[in-house]
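Key idea: predict the complex, not the pieces.
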Amino acid sequence: MRQFLIIGHEAPTHGDFPLDDLPGSAGRFDLLCRCVTAALLYSHGVRTNVRVHLVIQDEVTITIDGGTVRRLNPDERSTAARLQTALDHRDEAIGHQPVEPSPGVALRTRGLEPTLDDFDGTPVLLHPDGEKAPAVDVPSDPIFLLSDHHEFTAGERELLEDHAVRTVTLGPTPLHADQAITVAHNWLDTEGFMAYSDH
Amino acid sequence: MRQFLIIGHEAPTHGDFPLDDLPGSAGRFDLLCRCVTAALLYSHGVRTNVRVHLVIQDEVTITIDGGTVRRLNPDERSTAARLQTALDHRDEAIGHQPVEPSPGVALRTRGLEPTLDDFDGTPVLLHPDGEKAPAVDVPSDPIFLLSDHHEFTAGERELLEDHAVRTVTLGPTPLHADQAITVAHNWLDTEGFMAYSDH
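Result:
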């Protein structure tokens, strides 16, 4: 299982935002939607062994599970509509109980720390300061930790470093979060595939 | 200079399409917009040394130049609006003369073959059948050739193979065109950066 956790600093925690203005009044919701696509979809297929977690304003976490989600399309608008529906139902998520308004899309009213505490796998912080990906052994059951268009806050960084087993960089160019997800997938996908051609 | 050429088989050749339905009535225009973003944008920056060419229905080619384009945002809708404006002006593109309704966005009424004939660089066909990227020397001034959600037609394939210096695959997972662009950039970006850690 591969997992991706993306922190959204400005995205809305309720569903009352316009689908026509995802980058503006919806607080860069476009970026979170592209992260979902990059994590779960490839050409004509769904990565069934992947989960993506959107932690929004340290208040709400939406988890999309590639194994159970249905009819996910790659465009931003339809993904935003799906997530908007989850946010519309947030008042039904009580305590640790998630609400799951569509298959494979679960919303919990909890923030970063309890989400990290609950993980089963190897958290990997993606950050320019980290070790270079090819020199790092591919972690088992990795959980990649990323931020949206903002840097992690000092508090988030501390919390993430407490949980992360290692910090990894994917290259010299600072990438959008969704681009980093695509490259991380490729890193893991090609590990065995490329090996014999390296020598 | 890096360049990317993406063939759009169903995207509209005129600007009369709804921005609210890019995947449907706009013939997967969402995918072409994500290709523009993947090719030209990184985190808080523009790749000024990159050009992307969208060849639509073998009839119209829109070229977006990272060196001169202004205020390009990463979301699909605003990119679609920018390209729509170019298509709105297509009747002003006469013969080989482009129309450039906004800086860095040029539209020509020509299809695949004349666009390929006009290239200065090393065409590289991205396809699952190709050589594995890491085993291939990074080409100078590469022009990556990709298709949208459809396979290349037999005619396109023949034309592309006549022009392509080599055929390269980026990994075992079939990728969306925009994901392939992101991975191709990472391949080239990391060539020197990663080298010393491989040994």
